[in-house]
Specification:
single chain; 404 residues; alpha/beta; nine-stranded mixed β-sheet; 9 strands
Length: 404
Amino acid sequence: MTELNLSAIGDIAEDIEEIVHLVKEFQTASNVKVNVTRLPWERAWQTLLMTAMEGKGGDVSQVGSTWAPTLAALDSLRWFSETEIRTMGGPLAFVPAAWQTVRVEGRGEVWAIPWSVYTFVIFYRRDLLKKAGVDEAAAFATPESMQETFQTLQSAGITPWAIPTTAHYLDLPHIASSWVRAYGGDFISADGKKVIFNSPHARQGLVEFFSLYRFLPARFRGLTYEACLDEFFGKGNTAAIIAGAESYSDALEEDGIPEEFRDQIGAAAIPGVPWIGGDHLVAWKTVRTDPDKERAAVALIESLASVENQARLYRENAILPARLDAYADLDFQPEGMRLVLEKILQEGRPHPPARLWRRIESMLVDMLFDIARSVMDFQKQEPAEIVGAKLAEYERRLSLVLGG
């Protein structure tokens, strides 16, 4: 019997429970034994990097979509043939933003198969917006309208929002990128060789994003992501929150939303150009030494990425599919979420598939947290002045990393 080792990412065993179920069904149908190893998020990248460098430790892995280009650039992954890709539905079967990260810049081979997508939306309270006289249809349509909405809410005595303000909030670059791209900017160039976050367009978006931090009450400083979710869903203390698209469903399942305002929660796309990330499935190059194992690895990935299993992942775990055809028969919450997701899937973009993205991302997290903290600390200084100075400083630092 052929035996495979698959590594899946999750902080607790329940995080990979569904993939374990899918693997068991694959084993029964294929007579292939699959050993599943859980990689905690805090150790996942280091473990995968060591697998890439040492050439041992796994056959198939779930990896972050932004990680795949780096792993491929290390010549550690097995590429997928055109025939295999057609068997899985072809490129057009997948969310466009997800397919954009299956290659390395400058090379044509496909090194990964999209498995899930992840994105952020704005959840808001319809009743609180109405109380403040805000039109929910236009409240978050543009960076400018969101600024006006928050000003109106604050003037009405309503706390506009909550956002994590702890150091190393890893999702901050993903959220802020929507504002950066609202005017045609970006953090780095498409080829990953030049920092461009200090261009006028990107800088304008970041000034507008960080200006929103002036609407955070002092008691909300230092909150974690989980605490922010509780302030919105559990306690109803804010009018809006930026959170993962699955957050409402998760909170509802955990009975974390009081009944009196469950029906008052709406959803909207983040202004600008939404970020789309997620997870890919990869086969390590070492499987090529054993034809039976190589065939089994590709078959496992094909099974996990099938439309049936993609739809099942959402129904049972609220994980958004990477396949477009998996969305047809799915129900989304709250009301209006389907239209929001359709907009995001059509317009959303990933970060550029740069070879050094992992290192760039770490520096962006530090930069954006530094800006956020400064905007909150120095209330008498204009956000534009703070953002401009910080971007110039970090532009010099990151340019050295990229060799510019």
